[in-house]
Amino acid sequence: MVRAMSEDRQAGRQHRADFDDDLGDGAPFGRASDEPDPLPAQSDDAAPIVLASISGVTESGASGWLATRRRRFRHWWRGATPNLRGSIYMVSSFLVYAVMTGLFKYLGPMIPLVEILMVRQIVMSLIIIAFAMRELPAMIHTDRPGLQVFRGLVTLASMLCGFSAIIYIPLAQATAIGFSQVLFVTIAAVLVLKETVDRARWVATIIGFVGVIIMLNPSADGLDVYALMSVGGALFGACVTVSVRMLAASERTDTILIWQGIVLIVVLAVPTWWVWVWPTPQQWLWLIVLSVFGTAGQWLLTRAYQVGEASALAPIDFSRLLLASFTGFVFFAEIPALPTWIGAAIVIGATLFTVRKNARSLIPAA
């Protein structure tokens, strides 16, 4: 959940105009719009008497009730602010990703992780191609193949680390440590993108890493290797963020997604063949559900960040920790330790400050 969602946030933040041109505005990989449709010249309730007397022309009963509710919802949706719509998209993505994450944790001890990732990526790529078949040649074309391959590799590294942590440590702990990705991005922005970071953000970054150390809970027995892998997932996720920023100037969002699929499938082919375990029919079902939910979550979160403002959606993002804690407790009997909550509070505070500070720095002076 942590790794996949970080991918989608970056795709969503890339370019709103790019999304409108390439992926459509309201449907996955197609053209639609959230803008109001032209109003009908006459309401359904005012249908002519002649038409109303013809069986099947006017709606009645349950179908009429449903149609009325749908019209009211469309009217409300058109009047909602972009940030409200983005928030709904985001919360919906959390619920969808919760299912995917739970299935990763359930299937992980039985099926090799590389095999799960391979099946997930194949299903996701097929869904993307099915919705954008006519634009496939344009999607594959890229002016920066080297950077596309690099992004695919760091994406794979982020997934391997992040999902390994999800499988073997409490969901709440893995999710909380994953929030440290924003802190790594601050450092990468200075080293790679040559961005200027003020003193306040450096202080917030240092405080945030203190929270990460508290969550790692070092002891005489050493650090938990899977907790460290969660940190590694956040680090590689920051590399993904930087690479997406570098690609944003020239590459379409769907081009980035299709190249990710190509790279992951090629790299995972041999390891998957080597460790392949034949899933049972039930496991196949869960693998497909995991893949479909992962694709749906990717689209929902991408829409969230393309409709709403990142600074407005950031506080909602941290509700993932509560959802992860609930999922871990109900389905896997996990109870987060006190250091996890203390460290998570510190990391969330530092991350929220950094996101809000970044948002303010983008507002031009009057």
UniProtKB/TrEMBL annotation:
Domain named EamA: residues: 85-216, 227-355
Cellular component per GO, a single term: membrane
SUPFAM superfamilies, per the entry: Multidrug resistance efflux transporter EmrE
Region (Disordered): 1-41
Keyword Membrane tagged: yes
Segments crossing the lipid bilayer: 88-107, 113-132, 153-171, 177-193, 200-219, 225-244, 256-277, 338-355
Biased composition (Basic and acidic residues): 1-18
Keywords: Membrane, Transmembrane, Transmembrane helix
Protein name, entry field: DMT family transporter
Provenance organism: Bosea caraganae
Taxonomic lineage: Bacteria, Pseudomonadati, Pseudomonadota, Alphaproteobacteria, Hyphomicrobiales
